[in-house]
Design brief:
- The chain is an alpha+beta fold and 200 residues long.
- Helix content is 34%, strand content 22%.
- It has five helices and seven strands, in the order ββααβααββαββ.
- It has a four-stranded mixed sheet, with no helix packed on it. Strands 3-7-6 form a three-stranded antiparallel sheet, with helices on one face.
- β4 and β5 form a beta hairpin.
- α3 packs antiparallel against α4.
- The longest helix is centred in the first third of the chain and has 20 residues.
- The termini are far apart.
C-alpha cells in the first residue's frame, strides 16, 4: 500500500443471495451480499480514514449530504427539508420539490471519471495510484448453494461490501446537484431538489 498498490488477492468477491421476503419466487426477491477477504477490510478502513479526513478538510462533501457521515442521519435530512419549507411558507413563497431515487448507482461508478475527479480535488501521487489500484482488477463469482459461477472481472462500480464503498460513492456523486439551481438535500443516492418563489 505504501507504494500505491492494492493486492489482487484482496480483490476477490463471492456474491451470495439472501431472501428479502419469507417465500421468494423471483430473482428480485433476493438481496445480493458480497463476501470479501477479511484482511481487505483492515486496509480499507485505513483508506477510508485518510480519504474521509482529506475530504472533510477540503470540503469535498457538501453539508447537505447526510448519507454515510458521522453524526448525520435521515432524520436530520428530513428536518432540513421541512425547515426550508416552513421558512418558505412563512415568507408566503410557493415551494416546488422533487424527490429522486437513483437506481443501481453504486454499481455504475465509472472508474476513469472517478479518478479524474479525485485528481481535480487534489488527490495525487501515491494516494491516487493506490485508489486506482484498489478499483482495478476486481473479480467476483456468484454462489447459490454449492454451485459457484466462474469468476468475472468487475469493470465499473465500487466494490459491494467494502468499508470504503460508501465514501467513494459520495465523492463520485455529491456534485450532481450543481447541475441545477435548486436547493438540495441528499442521503447517498436519494436526492431532494426544491425551489421556491412567489408565483407557480
Amino acid at each position: 500500500m505504501a507504494k500505491g498498490g492494492f493486492s489482487n488477492l484482496l480483490k476477490i468477491a463471492q456474491i451470495t443471495s439472501i431472501p428479502k421476503i419469507t417465500s421468494p419466487k423471483s430473482p428480485n426477491d433476493y438481496r445480493p451480499i458480497s463476501i470479501l477477504p477479511t484482511l481487505s477490510k483492515y486496509f480499507e478502513e485505513v483508506i477510508y480514514s485518510r480519504l474521509y479526513s482529506f475530504g472533510t478538510s477540503k470540503c469535498i462533501l457538501r453539508p447537505q449530504q447526510y448519507g454515510f457521515r458521522t453524526n448525520l442521519s435521515t432524520e436530520l435530512a428530513i428536518a432540513s427539508i421541512y425547515d426550508d419549507m416552513i421558512c418558505n411558507k412563512d415568507n408566503k413563497l410557493i415551494t416546488c420539490t422533487l424527490f429522486l431515487n437513483l437506481s443501481k448507482t453504486f454499481d455504475c461508478v465509472d472508474h476513469k471519471i472517478f479518478l479524474e475527479k479525485l485528481f481535480y480535488y487534489g488527490v495525487k501521487g501515491t494516494p491516487l495510484k493506490l485508489l486506482a489500484s484498489y478499483l482495478d482488477n476486481w473479480f467476483q463469482c456468484t454462489k447459490i448453494g454449492d454451485p459457484k459461477s466462474p469468476f468475472l472481472n468487475v469493470t465499473c462500480g465500487v466494490p459491494q461490501g467494502s468499508a470504503v464503498r460508501p465514501l467513494l460513492f459520495l465523492i463520485y456523486i455529491d456534485d450532481i446537484v450543481n447541475a441545477s439551481n435548486f436547493n438540495s438535500v441528499s442521503y447517498a443516492d436519494d436526492i431532494n431538489l426544491h425551489i421556491s418563489g412567489k408565483k407557480p
